[in-house]
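Troubleshooting entry. Yesterday's outputs looked truncated, so today I'm pasting the complete records for two proteins to confirm everything comes through intact. If either block looks cut off, that's the bug. Protein one:
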Amino acid sequence: MNISFWYQSLEKPFFAPPAEVFGIVWSILYPIIFISFGYVFYLILKDRIPSKVSIPFIVNLVANFSFSPIQFGLQNNILAMIDILIVFGSLIWAMKVIWKYSRGVAIAQIPYLLWVGFAMILQISITWLNFK
């Protein structure tokens, strides 16, 4: 089944934005993520912060980049919902862990956190509305 058709055929909540919004938002968020997460890994490589600080950032990146293949490749709303919960939880974890070393990095994640919170509610709603 065509991925676009599959997603368009899903029942969505009234607050689901048009598809174009996702591209716009991610084109703003990915540079923020790249720079701030890159800075964290730079600090780790320079031994300025413990390497264990990288764990929630790695979990977040893996879960974030896994979402589209799960949602659109596997076309599995339940796994996509679990994945977005991991993205959200690992981001909160990352913000908490980095706060004592770089408040700027933690604060830079606020737009990402807000968007992922919205995306999580959207995905939970889509999963619920299309549960069969």
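Protein two, checking that the full record survives here as well:
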Amino acid sequence: MNSHEQDKTFFESSLQQLEAYLLSKELYWPGSVRTTDFTQVTLGAMLLVRERLKGWRRPGLTELTMQMDAVRLKWRAAWDEKARREVRARGELWKNYLEEARRHPGDMARQYPYEVRLRAILTLLLDDIRETPADWLVSLDAELRRVLKGDAFVWDPSLAWNFPQESFWFLYGTLTQEK
């Protein structure tokens, strides 16, 4: 996971490119800043990084969020269309990870704290565009609930307060390592 400095640099850089990104046909926009877990600009990456920045309680986020909100309001239709495309793309990646986890539970369990960011992004995108999870995601969640064990937050503990267990239950636990 990124540090709060990496996240802030990524977020600031992405904001500078946000309008051009929204008006493009690209879903994954080449970012000028690469971090541990993001090399390209997407709405989901920006939403997740913003939430982590909130969790770290760093100054200056209010102004950055206002900038993002202004672009979102100006280009709302483009934003929503891009967000829906990203839900489909991230959903496919998440489904593929869970299928691999079923086949190779030990290897995939170790990658869970990194890969679960896909599910967090899906929640943030769906909340942003005010859509409920589709049947395919409900089905994947039911499968995940069966194999998730424990209740420890999988990311930096200082972020847990901003990712409540009620909404981000998948961040609280680890995958079973046996078939």
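Both blocks look complete. Sanity check on protein two: The longest strand covers residues 148-153.
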